[in-house]
Write a structure and sequence with these properties.
The protein is α/β, with parallel strands linked by helices and 509 residues long. The chain contains 16 helices and 12 strands. The radius of gyration is 23 Å and the shape is globular.
Length: 509
């Protein structure tokens, strides 16, 4: 079998404004025409898609665990859709159907197939692919589209592992080059006499100009995280999507920090979504996995070929655990967001005035008119605009608005700079380290998104491999601390941050 031609050209997806969610029963040759889950909410789909009792020989209410590595054929070449577990596995297929549904890709794929006249003959599987890690998903996208001399435009503030792959693997071994670009509103400043409409247009035009300037004739993809890691800047997905489509370049969004509960990039114009399943989706710090989700039949065919060829797929047991974790994603995401907002508010309203921290980064944080900069306000507004319909409806029902006092929940990640005597230092992190080592509930550890709270020092941990000059430009210094706020009691978490912060800075005196 010869590999399909890899290309970055993609068709413009249909408008998702009236997207409704449904998915077909899984099989090796799924055709997305079932309307079983058509009208259900995110929480309901996260529980039931891929876990339908009708798909089980014994009507199990959870997906069956298929451990077999190979499958009996009735005749040579005649089977039930499964030949070898690397190519397809029923448990992994259930996970892929679930992921496609939560990002809205199942419906968009069906629309694309109907537009092409092949909805009834599609044999390419669900609109999602599961991998053995988030890095494997990243490698499949970047290597598959931009390898052999291609070019990538990437958001500047990107996960250290992604930066490492782009520069040291794709760049060194595959000849792919990467240009890092600021795609955020974080540095926005008002211009005297400018109206609100003029200001917003200028801010948008500035981002477009930076991205346009980075695009080259051989640019094969635009890559962004939003929120970014670890500064938590936001990227305007719809705006960048318009730039990408004007150049027929796929837009890839790493949606790990936001999760499909808070944000659906495909419905905002992105072409590909990637996830580290290890983080919020699984949510229990006991599975390593990744995902790639796209409604493009062409890209899906290319990436499924590479998934099989590379063989970086999750074991069936890991797929089953990930499905189990996703069943509670909506519940966990809400509590992560509430707790993170509580921690961010304490840092902003108490720790900043007390001189304990320099600044606080949280997408939904409302610092108040007297303190909030134009860039911070625009990012908060963008966070609200990019909320998924389910998340926004839940927040409104709970009494939150875009301009709520203190802010609104948006993921469980918080970053801040502790106020030591060594701002912007790439060497002195003693104050931050004392804080991290003095925490009782937050564990000093890499990774994020588990039910338990974690804290880390990006300078020496997750982003240690990023060149020092780039770290300095991004504000990744010895004072930057990243928190993954768990689902423990919110007041306990705030107290833990306070006691360790005060103790760490008291020892510095």
């Amino acid at each position: 079998m010869s590999p399909p031609e890899l290309t970055s050209a993609i068709p413009t997806p249909p408008s998702p404004l009236d997207v409704q969610h449904h998915q077909n029963p899984h099989s090796a040759v799924p055709t997305p025409t079932s309307t079983h889950h058509k009208h259900f909410s995110f929480a309901t789909r996260s529980l039931h898609v891929g876990s339908e009792p009708s798909l089980s020989s014994s009507s199990d209410v959870i997906p069956e665990l298929h451990l077999s590595t190979t499958y009996r054929q009735s005749k040579v070449g005649k089977h039930k859709g499964f030949e070898y577990t690397r190519s397809a596995n029923p448990t992994r297929l259930a996970l892929e159907r679930l992921l496609a549904s939560l990002e809205g890709a199942d419906v968009l794929l069906e629309r694309n197939l109907r537009a092409e006249g092949r909805a009834d003959s599609w044999e390419g599987g669900p609109a999602a692919l599961a991998f053995s890690s988030g890095s494997a998903a990243t490698a499949t996208v970047v290597g598959g589209l931009a390898g052999q001399g291609g070019h990538v435009v990437s958001v500047a503030d990107v996960y250290g592992g992604t930066s490492r792959y782009m520069v040291q693997v794709a760049g060194t071994l595959q000849g792919a080059q990467t240009t890092f670009v600021d795609m955020s509103y974080s540095g926005t400043e008002p211009v005297q006499g400018e109206s609100e409409e003029q200001r917003r247009k200028r801010e948008d035009d500035d981002i477009v100009a930076r991205v346009e300037a980075a695009i080259q004739p051989n640019t094969k993809l635009i890559w962004a995280e939003t929120p970014t890691n670890p500064i938590l800047n936001l990227v305007p997905i719809a705006l960048i999507s318009r730039v990408a489509k004007a150049h027929s370049i796929p837009l890839v969004i790493d949606n790990t920090f936001a999760t499909p509960y808070y944000q659906n990039p495909l419905l905002l114009g992105a072409d590909i979504v990637v996830h580290s399943l290890t983080k919020y989706l699984n949510g229990h710090s006991d599975v390593l996995g990744g995902a790639l989700i796209t409604p493009s039949p062409q890209l899906l065919t290319q990436f499924r070929f590479l998934q099989n060829a590379h063989g970086a797929v999750p074991a069936p047991f890991d797929a089953m655990l990930a499905i189990r974790g996703i069943k509670t994603l909506s519940l966990r995401a809400r509590q992560h967001g509430l707790n993170a907002l509580a921690v961010a508010r304490w840092l902003q309203e108490v720790a900043v005035p007390a001189g304990l921290v320099r600044d606080v980064r949280y997408p939904g944080l409302n610092r108040g008119e007297a303190v909030e900069t134009a860039g911070q306000r625009r990012e908060r507004e963008l966070a609200w605009e990019q909320l998924s319909l389910d998340a926004k409806a839940s927040l409104v029902k709970a009494g939150f608005t875009r301009d709520s006092q203190g802010g609104f929940p948006f993921s469980g990640m918080v970053s801040f700079h502790i106020n030591s005597n060594a701002p912007q230092s790439q060497e002195d992190s003693s104050a931050a380290e004392r804080f991290l080592e003095g925490l009782e509930l937050f564990s000093l550890a890499e990774s994020l998104g588990g039910v338990e709270s974690l804290a880390e020092l990006p300078l020496k941990m997750t982003h240690a491999g990023v060149p020092a000059e780039r770290r300095r430009e991004l504000g990744i210094d010895g004072e930057l601390v990243r928190l993954s706020v768990g689902v423990e009691d919110g007041e306990d978490l705030v107290k833990d941050v306070e006691q360790s912060l005060r103790a760490a800075l008291q020892l510095a005196k």
